[in-house]
Amino acid sequence: MSSNEINRGMLIRIHGDLYQVTDFGEQHTGKQKSKTHVTLRNLRNGHVTDKLLETIQPIEEVPHEIREMQYLYSSADEFTFMDNETFEQHTVPSSKLGQATRFLVEGEAYRVFCANDLPINLELPDAVVMKVTDTAPPSHAPSGSSNVTKEAVIASGMTVRVPLFVKNGDSIRLDTTTGKYVGKES
């Protein structure tokens, strides 16, 4: 497989393990042949690795589809989703979902990667809107300080740092890669 055939989000099998391509790029160094670096997320254990495309050959692309599924509930280390078309329930181990579990809210619909009719990963946007369920009342920062924050609990149960003006019931945007406050929704 050449660098022209690699795409972000594609699923590939390398030496029997399933990986998702999260990023890739070519590096040109002088007169040498360019090298393609591929960032891969192992879907079995969630580990992210950076490899040279030449060292991971042969690569087998795995056909997959993205389905809309509703998050129902979690128990122990498993999360249960319902396919919105077939109404089948699927259980996904938390190790396959990784950090996405911090943003799951019961009853909400999510885009789920499926291979061989089984859910293997969750696709989240760069930022999600979440409702603040518990935080201290809004207040003003002491004069002279500009970056004062307080803790807030969001609908998924995760605790995040937010500006002092955020109150219970507000909708806020969070970065899904860092989990940090990005802005307030109107």
Short structural description:
The chain has one helix at residues 94-97; strands at residues 11-14, 17-27, 35-42, 48-52, 60-61, 65-75, 78-83, 89-93, 109-115, 118-123, 127-135, 149-154, 159-163, 171-175, 181-184.
List the helices and strands and how they pair.
Layout: E1 11-14, E2 17-27, E3 35-42, E4 48-52, E5 60-61, E6 65-75, E7 78-83, E8 89-93, H1 94-97, E9 109-115, E10 118-123, E11 127-135, E12 149-154, E13 159-163, E14 171-175, E15 181-184
Antiparallel strand pairs: 1-2, 1-5, 2-3, 3-4, 6-7, 6-9, 7-8, 9-10, 11-12, 11-14, 12-13, 14-15
Give a description of the structure:
- With 186 residues, the protein is mainly beta.
- The chain has three domains: 3-61, SH3 type barrels (Roll), CATH 2.30.30; 65-123, Nucleic acid-binding proteins (OB fold (Dihydrolipoamide Acetyltransferase, E2P), Beta Barrel); 127-184, Nucleic acid-binding proteins (OB fold (Dihydrolipoamide Acetyltransferase, E2P)).
- Helices cover 2% and strands 51% of the residues.
- It contains one helix and 15 strands.
- It has a five-stranded antiparallel beta sheet, with no helix packed on it. Strands 8-7-6-9-10 form a five-stranded antiparallel beta sheet.
- Strand 2 and strand 3 form a beta hairpin.
- The radius of gyration is 20 Å and the shape is flat.
- The N and C termini lie far apart (46 Å).
- 16% of the residues are buried.
Using brief descriptors, characterize the structure shown.
OB fold (Dihydrolipoamide Acetyltransferase, E2P); 186 residues; 5-stranded antiparallel β-sheet; single chain; 15 strands; 3 domains; SH3 type barrels; mainly beta
